[in-house]
Amino acid sequence: MAAYQILLLIKFVGVILYSGGLIGSFVATALVDRKRAVHAVASPGLVVTWIAGYLLTTQLQVPLTELWIVAAIPLSLVSQLALVHSVSRDRRTTGAFVSAFAPLFMVLLMMVFRPTWSGVGS
After folding, report:
1. Residue 59, φ and ψ in degrees, nearest 5
2. pLDDT, one tens digit for every residue, the chain (122 residues)
3. Is the pTM of this model over 0.90?
4. Whole domain around residue 91: which residue ranges?
5. How big, in percent rounded to 5, are the helix, strand and coil portions of the chain?
6. CA distance linking residue 59 with residue 36, whole number of Å
7. Would you give the DSSP letter of residue 64?
8. How many domains does the chain have?
9. 11 membership: H or E segment, kind and range
10. Do 18 and 45 form a contact (C-beta atoms < 8 A)?
11. With 0-12 CB in 10 A as exposed, 13-18 as middle and 19+ as buried, what is 72?
12. Would you tell me how many other CB atoms lie within 10 Å of the CB of residue 46?
């Protein structure tokens, strides 16, 4: 059980890093700082989250085809791509923030509530 708790903590740290990088990329004023927030904080945070999440699924013997996993992976990728795109331009917009934050929020909902395929038609 200790391995599970350590992996859960590592995944939580990854989510915090990603979220902090996302916020930092929109509150920083200099473009170089915004890029650093995305590429040096958020991106590694996402990698840590994915690796810890994968290791948690092996620990719990949960198939990667569960609805919450199948939905969370592309949503987190969409958030990351929106985040990278937002720092490829010099201006920050509300639309860019929503494009990066909304998929992240959906991923967090998936991680907390873990909807399954059996719940889809009920």
Report:
1. -65, -45
2. 799 999 999 999 999 999 999 999 999 999 999 999 999 999 999 999 999 999 999 999 999 999 999 999 999 999 999 999 999 988 899 999 999 999 999 999 999 999 998 878 76
3. yes
4. 1-119
5. 80, 0, 20
6. 33
7. T
8. 1
9. helix 2-27
10. yes
11. buried
12. 23
The residue with tokens 């350590």 is 6
Dist CA 22 CA 63 (whole Å): 29
Q: What is the pLDDT of residue 91?
A: 84
CA atoms within 13 A on the CB side of 82: 23
Structure tokens at 23: 């916020």
Cα–Cα dist 67/116, whole Å: 5
What is the rounded distance in angstroms from the CA atom of residue 76 to the CA atom of residue 84? 12
Whole-number pLDDT of residue 122: 60
